[in-house]
Each structure stands twice: as structure tokens, then as C-alpha cells.
Amino acid sequence: MRVAPLRPGSYFLSGNAACAEAAIHAGCRFFAAYPITPASDIGERLARRFAGTEDGIFIQCEDELASMAMVLGASAAGAKSMTATSGPGFSLMMENIGLGIMMELPCVVVDVQRGGPSTGLPTLPSQGDVLQARWGTHGDYPMVVLTPESAQEMFHCTLRAFNLAERLRMPVLILSEESVGHTNEPVSVPDAHAIETVSRKMTTVPPLAYRSYEPDDHGVPAMAPLGKGYGVTLTGLSHDERGAPRASDPENHQKLVERLFAKVEAHCPQILLYEEELTEDAELVVIAYGAVGRPAKAAVLQARQQGLKVGLFRPISLFPVPEARLLELARRVRGFVVAEMNAGQFAREVERCVRPVPVRSLSSLAAVHKPEEILHVIEGWAHVD
Amino acid sequence: MSIRLYDEWPDGIGHPLDSLLRTEQLPHVWCVGCGLGTATACLLGALEELPAVRDHAVLVGGIGCTGRAVGYTKLDNFHTTHGRAIPFATGLKLADPSLNVIVFSGDGDLFSIGGNHFIHAARRNVDLLVICCNNFIYGMTGGQVACTTLPGDHSTTTPMGNLEDAFNLPALAEAAGATYVARWTSLHPVQTQRTIREALGRKGFRFIEILVQCPTYYGKYNDMDLRGMVMYLKNRAAMAEGSAPAAVPITKDRIPVGVFVRLERRPFDGRIPPAS
Ligand code: SF4
């Protein structure tokens, strides 16, 4: 028996369950993770869904260092692979997320955020890992981060994450939150045939001509099957196109890292995704993402009823930052309010894009904002001048 | 045994294992007199003897002097992060059971920073061959004490002698669940290659420790030149085939060698059986 995707229809699922089901639709057949609140139920569901099949592989690891490494190994062997964790485990994964970037191995990492630092608030929501998701592993590298506001959107983000990972040949991160992960809501599951699934590009050159890191026109090297004489050579060391270590060659390293950035840049049209509400004539734009997008939308609609010209910009892809769109908005609005469940991490990203237009950060550390809190800030702004 | 001599090679040039080496990447990074070349040759020699195994072999290395070995080969190879060779290899093996996955790394990598992964992979009985080149010290980082440095030995971080005890790696492997456990030194290339060949023909979590001389650091800080290091290994090595792993710790006077464990146990494959 093989792993079977859910039949199309309407289901009542948590964000975590939607993630697991979408992973199956995307073709994920390898899941490795260490238990951690509030992400454990993604693995629990996949263990049940993979049981009794010959193609679904589940392993509960000794720690998150291992889960990230196993996911990369499985990816190298041809599997679409995923892991899921939360703050403390996400910290441990950073080392091998860097390896995934350097080895250019597609995989999906889900961080169901909880409050930090350290053990923090295991059962409360947070968006405290936003900049860690972007810059958590050492060095310079591009990163693709998606962030859903609901179980339904989690389903779509997970599908997209796999497709982007396979297309870009790199790890793609999903930043969820306890509030999204553990809220049960209706999820409409489309027909499996109607879902676009992308698979990594495999090389077409003969084994002896294969070079592990030779990029195609889009900057993405083709992969090769193992055990077939291609001599696949992947390393975390800085390397040349053959995969040979070039550990003391600044010029070669510059070229390598620039290519990593360029491949993501070149795919921005496929990566960038955001929702806009009433921004056409807005003088003030509220920026919120993940679960905070929901009260933010309510606040914007209430403000509109008061006649205030407010709009909502909700990034669904958080990184790369939608710089061009933010700049366009900045040309015609008087200010931005960034509501997020951290101390202003994304607000700083917005600030650097929209300068000198003022940006106000509305921070809530361990609870989803209430619509009236956001409305209050909007009203305060409107009465400034 | 099939160690071929140079004069059997066409024109008398090249190395008998050139067919498996990325010769364009030589010379390697290892020091003159290092034992890692011998250990690597034993692995590649054993693979050459088993073409069916070789053709589906994948090598995984960690970080350190030994970890660099895999990248010199023409086989599919992965040079991973420090300590994580075993979980990376586990992912490879579970996702593609047709691969013969071999981890080739050092003592610091596998047993200090990666120790947790080693015991868990052995406990699960993941179908891997793990070869540890133990040089008693950290080589790549410049001669610091290791979890395998004998008590009293000197290193850059134990100027007054090591205060800690060393792991007995075969005992650790057996206790954690390994199904095949052996130890040799770089002074036993024939036995080492034969043992690797035997291990490659078996299933489950298999562990081979190869003691290698590190004249550059271990020798230097413990008053041995290359010859002294080689004689140190040679003179202390004592045949202990079949001994209980707990009875084979390395001491100042004795390095027990041989195959210690041969067991059959169903390997772990990550597939969950159906509910009955
Ligand atoms: S430092 Fe020691 S182990 Fe490393 S290559 Fe040199 S001799 Fe060999």
C-alpha cells in the first residue's frame, strides 16, 4: 500500500494537521522530527498516515540536530522531506539549515513558533523567530520564508514550500504559530490532480560529465541519482562547480554566494505572495502577517467604517521581503503600522524599505493582537494631523 | 587479499586505487606520515574487491582530518557538518535502501560532538557501516584533547596531562546495539581491509575503529616522531579476536585488536507496519 492523499472535500483541521496533509499532497514521503510543543502533532499525524505503507518513512529522532541532518540526507537520496519543530528545536536546526543551503538540498522546515527566548512559553503563540528564520544560521545566504494566517493557508503554504524548495534546490521555511497550528477550522482540500507539484530538475548529462554544482540558466544546479556513477559530491565547505573544496579562495566564494542569492532573486515572481485589502486609496497601511493578519483585517475594516483611509498589507511570503511593493506603497501613503507578535522584527525590515515614511511598530509578545488594539493605533495616527 | 603492487600497474605509474580517486584533487590535505591514507586505502581496497557493493556505495564524512577523505573519491560522497555524518547517512539509507551507506569520520566527530547520534543509530540498528579513524587527538584544529585521549597524555589543552578517561569505543558500540564491532590499526592494513570487506557483506549497524598515527600533533605533544608513533601502535597491538568489547580498553601498554562482535538483528528501515 502506498501513502494516499486526502480525498477532495471540506475537512475540519488544525493548522498542524493541514500542514501534514498538504505535505502528503506535495509528495513528501520522509518526515524526521523530535517531539516539541506545539509542533508534535504534525509528526504524530504523519506517523499514522504513513503506517502500513511501503513509501512513507517516519523517524522520531534523538534531537533536532539529527532531524535536520536526516531530512537533508533523505533529500539527497531523492525523497521530498520535511521536519517540524518550535523555538528551541529551531535553534538546534540552524547548523544543518546552513548545510542545506550550501549543499543545495531541497526540503521543508516548519517552525510552529512559541514564545522565547529559551524554553519561554511552550503553549503560547509568538512570531519571535522571524529574524532567526532569516538569519539564524551563520554566514550570508538567501532564505525563503512563508507564513500562513489560517489552517487553509497552511495547506497552500506547505504545497508552495515544497514546490519552491524543489525548484530552487534549497531548504524553504514555514513560520507558523501556536495559534495557527492548534486552531481547528474548515479546510477545503482540492482534487490531488488539480494540485501543481514541482520536482527537482535531474541532470541529463552522462554520469562522467556530471558536475554537482553546475548551475542551469536560472542558477540552479541539476541533481543526480545516487549509486549510478555520477559521483555526486556535496560539501558544506566553500566549493567549486565540481564540489571540490575551495576553502581559502575568496573569489570563488564570492561567486558561489552571489549565485545562491541570484537563484532566489531570479525566482521572486514565483516566491512573492501577499494579500492587500483597501490599499488603493489608503493613507495608512497596516502590515501584519500570520495569525495577526486576521485581527489586523478586522481593525482595518472597522477604521474604514469610521471613514479612515486605511489599508492592509499582509505578506504570505515574508522573505525575500517584498521590497518593490513596499516602496510603491511608500510613495503614496503617510505611514505604516506593523503589528506583530515580537518586539518589532519585521518592522525594521519595513523601515529600511520605506524610509523616510514613518513606521510604527505595534508589538505583542505572546498573544495575538485584539482588533481594538490595532484600531486604537490607527485612530491615534489619524488624529496626529 | 588483493593489494596490488605498483609494478602491476600499467607503465608502473599511478596508484592501484586511482580508479576510485579524484586524482585531480591531489595532493590531499593530510600531513606526511599520517595514518589516514592507509585507512582510506583499506576502505577503497575493500570496495574494489566487492564491485557490486562499490557500485551502490555512498560515503559520508563529518568534519576533521578524516572527514575530508570522502571528497577525494569518485563515489557519491557527502562532507557534512561536525558530528552529523550519522544522521545524514541515516536519511540517505532510509530514503533509498538500495544504497550501501558508509560513514568515514574521526573520533572527535563521531564520539564527542556526534556521540548522541552514534548511540541512537546503533540502538535503532540503522543499516550503516561506520568507520572511525581514531588518532587520539583533534588534528584539524591543532592538537586539542579528545574523548579518546588516554589519561595523562599531552595535548595543547592538557599541558599537564589529560585528567579524563578515554572512551572504549568497541564497548560503547556494543552496549548501544552495534551488530558488528572491530578494531585495527593503520599498521594492520591487510586485516583492516579484510574486516571492512566482511562488514560490507553484512547488514545492520556495523562499527570498525581504526587507530591511526597523527605524528603532527599526538606524536609531537607526546614525544614521538613518526617512527615512534608507528612503533607505539605496532608494539602495543595485541590480538584479541572474539574478546568481549568491555575487555578491550586501550591502555598505555596494550591495544587489543580484532573482531569483537558479530550479531544478527533486524535493521531499522523507518517503515511503520500496518495496525494488526
Ligand atoms: S593533523 Fe594528524 S590526523 Fe590530521 S592529517 Fe596531520 S597527521 Fe593526520
Structure description:
The longest helix of chain A is centred in the middle third of the chain and has 18 residues, at 151-168. With 385 residues, chain A is an alpha/beta fold. Chain A has 2 domains: 9-194, Thiamin diphosphate (ThDP)-binding fold, Pyr/PP domains (Rossmann fold, 3-Layer(aba) Sandwich); 275-382, Rossmann fold (3-Layer(aba) Sandwich). The radius of gyration of chain A is 21 Å and the shape is globular. Chain A has helices at 15-26, 40-50, 64-76, 87-103, 130-135, 151-168, 178-181, 250-266, 268-271, 293-305, 323-332, 345-354, 371-382; strands spanning 9-14, 28-33, 57-60, 80-85, 107-115, 121-125, 145-146, 171-177, 184-189, 233-235, 274-277, 284-287, 310-315, 317-319, 335-340, 359-363. In chain A, strands 2, 3, 4, 5, 6, 7, 8 and 14 form an 8-stranded mixed sheet that branches. In chain A, helix 12 (345-354) links the parallel strand 15 (335-340) and strand 16. In chain B, strand 5 (180-185), helix 7 (189-200) and strand 6 (206-211) form a beta-alpha-beta unit. Chain B is α/β, with parallel strands linked by helices and 276 residues long. Helix content of chain B is 30%, strand content 16%. Chain B has a single domain (28-265), classed as 3-Layer(aba) Sandwich (Rossmann fold), CATH 3.40.50. Chain B has an 8-stranded mixed sheet with strand order 2-1-3-4-6-5-8-7, with helices on both faces. Chain B is globular, with a radius of gyration of 18 Å. In chain B, helix 1 (36-49) packs across helix 7 (189-200), helix 4 (107-113) packs across helix 5 (115-124) and helix 5 crosses helix 6 (169-176). Chain B has helices at residues 36-49, 51-54, 85-95, 107-113, 115-124, 169-176, 189-200, 215-221, 226-236; strands at 57-61, 76-79, 100-106, 129-134, 180-185, 206-211, 237-239, 255-262. The chains are: A alpha/beta (385), B alpha/beta (276). The interface between A and B is large, with 50 and 42 residues. Bound molecules: iron/sulfur cluster. Residues 30-31, 34, 36, 65, 135, 139, 214-217 of chain B line the site of iron/sulfur cluster.
